[in-house]
Amino acid sequence: MKKGLLIVESPAKTRTLKRYLGKDFDVRASVGHIKDLPRRHLGVDIEHDFAPEYEVIRGKGKIIKELKSAASKVQDIYLATDPDREGEAIAWHIAGELQGNGRGKGKDRHFYRVLFNELTEKAIKEAIKAPGTLDKNRFESQQARRILDRLVGYEISPLLWDKVKRGLSAGRVQSVAVRIICDREREIQAFEPEEYWTVTAKLEGPEPPPFEARVVGAGGKKISIPDGQTAGDIVKGLESQEFVVKKVETKARKKNPPPPFITSTLQQDAARKLRFQAKKTMMIAQKLYEGVGIGAEGPVGLITYMRTDSTRISSEAAKEARAFIRKEFGPDYVPKSIPRYKKGKMAQDAHEAIRPTSVARTPKAMSPYLDKDALALYGLIWRRFVASQMSPAIMDQTRVDIEAGTYALRANGTVLRFKGYLAVYSEVTDDAGKDVSLVEKEKDALPRLASGQRLDLLKLLPKQHFTQPPPRYTEASLIKTLEEKGIGRPSTYATILSTIRNKDYVRMEQRRFIPTELGLLVTDLLVTHFPEILDTSFTADMEKKLDEVEEGSVLWTEVLRRFYDAFRRALDKAKKEMRSVKQAGIATQIVCDKCGAPMVIKYGRTGEFLSCSAYPKCKNIKDFVRDEKGNIRIEEKKVQEMGKCDRCGRPMVVKRGRYGKFLACSGYPECRNTKPLSTGVKCPVDNCGGELVEKRSRSGKTFYSCSRYPECKYATWDEPVAETCPRCGFKILVIKNDKKDGKVLKCPQKGCGYKRSMKEN
Which CATH number fits the domain that encloses residue 457? Predict the structure, then answer.
């Protein structure tokens, strides 16, 4: 008989655990949740203290049967699901299924809770030696969140189906995220740019290099330059002046290293530096945590648990890092004491920060075992952790004040005296993704100057500027805002951002969120009728209440009752008073060019469009976009003819449907002939004879497949080009985006590796 049954969530994790626990344990995986609320009805008994109706998730019956069979052979069952609220709920449901019926062997089973912060031999064996018990408060906190989200989603979503269109969804956190994006868009639309000018003097002192100083004052007062006329007057006034150094001030400034990653900061930095979506970041991090095969060493967890809000690290990890830094960089790079970092105001501090399980596993050493994306993310985590344990960088900041008659000018320069943590890691902190920590730049360098020195004027540079509207949110800046406002939990951000894209509430342009017409409409309706739920402070306060449930200071049923009483009243009122746009649409100032009636915005399966309000008498429709001020602009698109219909002989035209562009007969509805849109590239499969056609997956992603499907199943995600690979002779190349070379033509055959920049074409 085995010593015990150990149950985890992921099958990948079982390989790592089996290696260290050997034959003493039967290690099994639940593959995530085994039970949940029902898919097709509410599943919450509101009248009886919100009792949940859990059911076995479809497809998990076989797994439960296997777990029961394994449990029948042991007395001790160790539940090692992920160390968070979701993991606690999974453990609770597994225990409920395996505890037996109170008779025989089942009643004698002992259940233990095991928490793995990292999957290393030492951490695993220590956790097994000192197991805990299931945490009822943590489970009830997750249960309260799940029921809360179910109540909001299942009660509001049908209302949106009735008033707007089917398929929409509302969520306690996702709807607030969309509101934040919509509010920013309206700030941009309302923004009025203001003109201002700067006047910069290019000067040269006794020693090189030349440098620039900007006009900051006149007559002893701070100056603003509102227009070109004023700038021109300043230029004329400076041309005849003598430029003299009035004061030189140099100060040493320390720049402290950033703390090690928590979930939200990892997602932000991966978005800025690696251009990873939050969902991708978490998927890769999960694999790094669960274990990667390291040659003869076997499967090893490379990072600690990736869902955490704590910057705390173990003393052993800190000591290992300090020894590594001393060896690789020298004693000056090791601070006198281990750095301590403040925790966030809503941090639960349950786990360590995200860090490598061993700093000795450098990115270079791990490169043979990780793919490109996994290595990039591991390298980011490794460098951030090492930097967090290093000495601050030291910079000399110099300010030079210059007089030119009644005008005052100022030049600033920064020189890096000691790299410190910047030797391994630089921060990207501004919204544009610009690297703002590497301060040693040639243009910032100032020559050696002294008070009273005269300077030669080389050139005066007046320049026009305009104030800029606030930037649209990137994934990184939206995650940062959600965290700062206390909305949701970092572990949920990846799902939230994916959901609002998939529901067409937002679209991405240049890696920034722009609300769709549908997103703006739904947000306005929800803010009008459910102002409390859409309020950021309410959502943040609810997170605090869920934390209190986990701490055991408040009952989960009481939290739900207080919420639901007010929510139910608002819902009943909204059902009566929320305006319906499903049939009438949203009125606009645009007039139909066929009948003169007002045009209205409507929503179809392929998105929003303008429709004549006189429909069905007038069936005029138009595509439209909004300008930066939110004004509607009609998009006139010419119909592109694509050959003749093989049924009736009329022209085939390009149309757009739910799954992208396709060819349709212009004689519709008399002739309903349709075809996929061909790329004109022949299928590369030998003797196929088909062509590659453009299609869209159910998730909305474009791909290209053979027109003879299902006889030929060749498909590619990348746009094909009718060009033979000069290296291996494959019949097509595909267009890919390369970080270094931009768009490139690449051979899709595995092992070929041919690539050519499209600039060479």
Answer: 2.70.20.10
